[in-house]
Amino acid sequence: MLVLGIESSCDETGFALYDGVGKRLLAHALHSQIDMHRAYGGVVPELASRDHIRRALPLLEQVLGDAGCGKNDIDVIAHTRGPGLAGALLVGSGIAHALGFALGKPVIGVHHLEGHLLSPLLSQDPPEFPFVALLVSGGHTQLMHVKRVGQYELLGETLDDAAGEAFDKTAKLLGLDYPGGPAVARLAEFGTPGALQLPRPMRHSGNLDFSFSGLKTAVLTEVRKQTNLCEQGRADIALAFQDAIVDVLALKSMAALKATREHRLVVSGGVGANSALRKRLQADVTKRGARVYFPELQWCTDNGAMIALAASMRMAAGIERAAHDYSFTVKPRWDLGSLTT
Ligand code: KG4
Ligand code: ZN
User: Fold this and answer.
1) Which CATH number does 2-117+300-339 carry?
2) From residue 192, how far is each of 3, 11, 197, 237, 238 by CA, in Å?
3) DSSP 8-state symbol, 176
4) DSSP letter string over 39-51?
5) CATH topology identical between 2-117+300-339 and 128-294
6) Which fold has domain 128-294?
7) What is the 3-state secondary structure (H, E, C) of 294-305?
8) What is the DSSP letter of 288?
9) Tens of pLDDT, residues 25-54
10) Position 140 pLDDT exceeds 80
């Protein structure tokens, strides 16, 4: 069963073809809009939607060509239904339904975060169920207990900014380019360890929730304190910020493993690319006698393959059926907990 996956919830247009029977990814293609949004310091929703329109069909042709398939070989069309930017979601969903209608193929709407939770299964070294997932992206920071496909328990989440958002806002305060995560991480390499201490929000909250807006305010206070902020001063702030965020993410992840008695931690979302976070989690998890899984970077960030995979797994588990219904709505806000069967 050949599943076409379409991702367009934010600033990446992703297409992929996944063989649901052979459980094999046949092709995937991605266009990132980062360069376009950089000039504005963040994602401009209307520009994102328009660019998805421009990129979609060439990417579809590309994956069909790479997989050596024709449009009629597609059995099911999966698209990100939410959460995300409404206009951007409408583009991918509109294309999915138009294609479905034209080809007479069923369509299935996928939750973007379920895609992220299952994307590690695309990696060379996939984890087995059950596991704890640390989902750290630009829009979300969540710890989830993934028992099997369709069974997700929210263990904790951010009460305000997401970890990636905190990186992006800190980057802005330090005069760095969008997207801020990689830029802050690069600058942090030049920071002096211990030169500055920033607060670890909710470290002792006794639960698995996070809060990062206070950390951003602490960065703002430091930036304002140092009127002529030199290069070293900026690097020290970047390092102190990264240390604080990594510390809280690692401590709460270990607490989540303890609470669930699981031995597998799977990290996904764009912030999962951060090497300081990877190093710390690796060390902490090893100390617990557990294992941490970092999917390859291409599966950490948004992509169409995770959407095709999630659709394929939901159908195989009998949780959902693709429908020949070509009317559609998108869900810019959509609680992942509502998917649990
Ligand atoms: O998962 P993702 O590609 O998109 C969604 O938000 O869905 O995550 C993007 C986020 C951005 O906030 C970006 O700054 C952050 O991931 N990010 C990083 C790194 N690479 C990307 N944050 C910290 N360190 C990195 N190396
Ligand atoms: Zn994402």
Assistant:
1) 3.30.420.40
2) 49, 34, 11, 9, 10
3) P
4) TTTS--HHHHHHH
5) yes
6) Nucleotidyltransferase; domain 5 (3.30.420)
7) CCCHHHHCCCCH
8) T
9) 999 999 999 999 998 988 999 999 999 999
10) yes
- Distance from residue 41's CA to the centre of ligand 1 (Å): 14
Strand 24-32: give its sheet, edge to edge. Answer: 24-32, 12-19, 2-7, 76-82, 107-111
* Tokens standing for residue 15: 């297409």
In the numeric block, the tokens 């060439």 are attached to 58
Residue 94 β-bridge partners: none
Instruction: Give, in degrees to the nearest 5, the angle at Cα 18 between 15 and 23.
Output: 155
Residue count of the chain: 341
- Name the nearest CA neighbour of 92 among 161, 15, 28, 164: 15
> What is the number of the ligand 1 atom nearest to the C-alpha of 138?
6
Q: Where are the domains of the chain?
A: 2-117+300-339, 128-294
Could you tell which of 10, 243, 280, 301 is best to mutate to test the pocket of ligand 1, judged by most ligand atoms within 8 Å of the CB? 301
What SS3 class is residue 161? Answer: coil
pTM to 2 decimal places: 0.92
Instruction: Measure the CA–CA gap between 231 and 190, rounded to whole angstroms.
Output: 9
**Predicted local confidence at residue 226, as pLDDT:** 80
Answer whether 139 contacts ligand 1 (Cβ < 6 A).
yes
**Taking a C-beta distance cutoff of 8 angstroms, is the pair 149, 317 a contact?**
yes
